[in-house]
Design goal:
Blueprint (H helix, E strand, L loop, with lengths): L1 H8 L6 H36 L5 H26 L2 H40 L2 H14 L16 H8 L10 H7 L2 H11 L1
C-alpha cells in the first residue's frame, strides 16, 4: 500500500507512460484489497462469529466502507487516465490524497484485526483449526490473482528473502515484492546513482 502511495505521489503528470504505470500499480493494489475483503468476509468473519457472536461486526461494517472507497478510487483513477495534461495534475493530486486516506484507514483497520480479532481466534480455535481456515482461504485465491505470499511481513531483508525462498521461481520474487525484498541500502544506491 505504502509503495503504491509513494509511487503515485511521485508520478510526473506530464509523463503519460509514468502515469499509466502508476495507475496499473494502483489497480493491482485495489484488486488485492477486494480479494482481501472477500476472503475475510467468507472465512475469517464467520470463524469469529462462531466463536464470539458480534466480534466481527465493526470490521464487517468497515469492509462495506472500504468497498465504496475502492470504487471511488477507481473513478478518480479514470479521471487521471483520461484527463488532459493540464487537468491531469489536479486529478492526480486528488487521487493521491484519497489513496493516502484509504491507506491510513486500512492501517487502523488492520491494527484492530491484529490486536482484537487475532486474540479471539487464538483463544477459541486450536492451531489445527486455524491452519484449516487458512488453507481454505488460500485455496480459494485464484492463482492468476495472487501468487503466495500475497503480503510480505515486516522484518529485516534477510528474513523477508528467507520467507519467500522456494515460492514461484526460485530466487525470483513476483514483481510487486521485489522492492520489499531488496535491501534498503541497495535501493538507496540505485536511486543515488541514477539521480
Amino acid at each position: 500500500m505504502t509503495h503504491t502511495l509513494c509511487r503515485l505521489g511521485s508520478t510526473d503528470p506530464a509523463d503519460g507512460t509514468e502515469v499509466a504505470a502508476a495507475l496499473e500499480m494502483l489497480e493491482r493494489l485495489l484488486a488485492l484489497c477486494e480479494l482481501h475483503l472477500k476472503d475475510e468476509n467468507e472465512f475469517v468473519h464467520p470463524a469469529l462469529e462462531r466463536a464470539r457472536p458480534g466480534s466481527a461486526a465493526r470490521i464487517a461494517a468497515e469492509h462495506v466502507h472500504h468497498a465504496e472507497a475502492i470504487a471511488d478510487l477507481r473513478d478518480l483513477a479514470g479521471l487521471v487516465g483520461h484527463g488532459r495534461e493540464g487537468a491531469r495534475a489536479a486529478a492526480l493530486a486528488r487521487l493521491y490524497r484519497a489513496l493516502a486516506l484509504f491507506v491510513a484507514d486500512n492501517l487502523q483497520h488492520m491494527h484492530v484485526e491484529e490486536t482484537t480479532h487475532n486474540p479471539v481466534l487464538w483463544a477459541e480455535y486450536s492451531d489445527a483449526e486455524l491452519v484449516a481456515i487458512e488453507q481454505a482461504l488460500v485455496a480459494s485465491i485464484p492463482r492468476r490473482r495472487c501468487s503466495r505470499p500475497c503480503t510480505v511481513p515486516a522484518g529485516a531483508q534477510c528474513q523477508r528473502a528467507r520467507g519467500h525462498a522456494g515460492r514461484d521461481e526460485p530466487g525470483h520474487a513476483p514483481e510487486p515484492f521485489r522492492a520489499v525484498l531488496a535491501s534498503p541500502s541497495a535501493r538507496w544506491r540505485r536511486r543515488t546513482t541514477h539521480a
